[in-house]
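Predict the holo structure. Ligand: flavin-adenine dinucleotide.
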Amino acid sequence: MIIPACGARVACVSSHYDDEQLVAALRAALSVDRVLDSPFEKVLYAKDASAIAPEDPGVVCLATSTAEVAAAVAIANRFGRSITPRGSGTGLAGGTIPLERAVVITTTKMNRVLEVHEHDGYAWVEPGLLNLDLTRAVSARGVHYAPDPSSQQTCSIGGNVGTNAGGPHCLLHGVTSAHIIAIEVVLPNGEIAVLGDIRGDAAGYDLRGVFVGSEGTMGIATKIAVRLTPNPPAIRTLLADFSTIREASKAVSAIIASGLLPAALEMMDANCIRAVENWAHAGLPLDAGAVLLVELEGVVDVVNDGVADVSRICTAQGAGSVRVAADATERALLWKARKSAFGAIANIKPNYYLHDCVVPRTRLAEIMDEVTRIADEQELIVLNVFHAGDGNLHPLLVYDKREPGVVDRVHEAGRQIIEVCIAAGGMLSGEHGIGLEKRDYMPLVFSAIDLDYQARIRLVFDPDQKWNPGKVLPGGSSCGEALHDASGPVVVAGAWV
Ligand SMILES: Cc1cc2nc3c(=O)[nH]c(=O)nc-3n(C[C@H](O)[C@H](O)[C@H](O)COP(=O)(O)OP(=O)(O)OC[C@H]3O[C@@H](n4cnc5c(N)ncnc54)[C@H](O)[C@@H]3O)c2cc1C
């Protein structure tokens, strides 16, 4: 039994006859080959990159335009069906898992760059455009799209809007929300609206800001005006190695406390270094307990001063060596190692559960000790590769789900990690979103009043509660249901929390 958001709905069960009529109507509006209903085709859209169990999508629509999205929404509404928007499906919180046999509307075929205005600092793009393809498309004009999730080769701009994605360079530039100027949206009732304004911050309430990070619960983005950032005149990249995670963590706190703001400040621990170096061959030190990858960007003199300052701070905090990338090739190799870390872990174990919590940077060293303790107690291998400058932890628990009892230990470790981070004054998610994964932990960080107002805002967009059911808000968020007396998160079918 799935507990739907807001607790007030009964799960929709469609009949076989309805399904046939629905598919026929969608095929008439889109095309036969872009409306998928065979189990073989639909299985690809049943899950995302999280460890959460798949669910059967009722039907999958591969839309090619705003008009097609609006038509699919109108048809789904006519049949009383739920809708789950989907980009590339790389989400790590279960955000695209189609509960209630939702109609999945995926934007992968809407992947064009529509207009580029580099002198005005923005471009209009379609939501299915891959993050890295956007930067590739505009880089010859001296600009780039700053948010760079490690998944940037595969994740879409629409999905980035859905999750308010982060990335290594968001330390300096801010997460997705700071780079989205306006969004054309097909709203839950099928109307088309533009939230935000390319002429500047729109007067009135910031509905663009509300929509970014709404995880497919308030409509679907069909065109997005993204901010373009000028390429910096100078970039320098450093790799500092430490004997322990604790030393590296203290160096992170010391760099930030010194007033320096690197463009990126990333950490990899020993397990991760070994996994990555085995195939990336980036010259990572195999005997190190942890490395920091630090990037500085800006005008030449300031960047050179920053290199000297970071080197001095790292050395003072115990760094064995500080390597400065000699050229763009070496820099690219170091980033390849960092951004490919998740792929490299397949050499260790076949399954992973990647966590995403934020802690105050001053507490980083002690929380990293706790993460190690928790993994040891549960007899699990943990790799750490994360946005250390933001205090955004990514403990990566690797396991083989065929091992008896291991899945339970993975979830127990995950629960303890989340609780330790929250107790330290942290936040549930730095970038992956809430989805199904963290939904039932929301009362740990939000008051009943706060959750009630979040639920009310959602209802303004989606009064029939048809959009991405079961995601983000736990049952009882509105209507004054008692959530906060609960002793802990609720375990629901389909969601591992
Ligand atoms: C190896 C790996 C590394 C990763 N590294 C990072 C990282 O560094 N930073 C980071 O933030 N994330 C990271 N992620 C997670 C993931 O890539 C991001 O959450 C990304 O933003 C998801 O994009 P997507 O296109 O795959 O979206 P999906 O997974 O398809 O969807 C994500 C959410 O957005 C909603 N959505 C999708 N499209 C739209 C739309 N057009 N309109 C409205 N809502 C929509 C969906 O309903 C869902 O709730 C990583 C994932 C992997 C597998």
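DSSP finds 16 helices and 20 strands in the chain. The longest strand covers residues 234-242.
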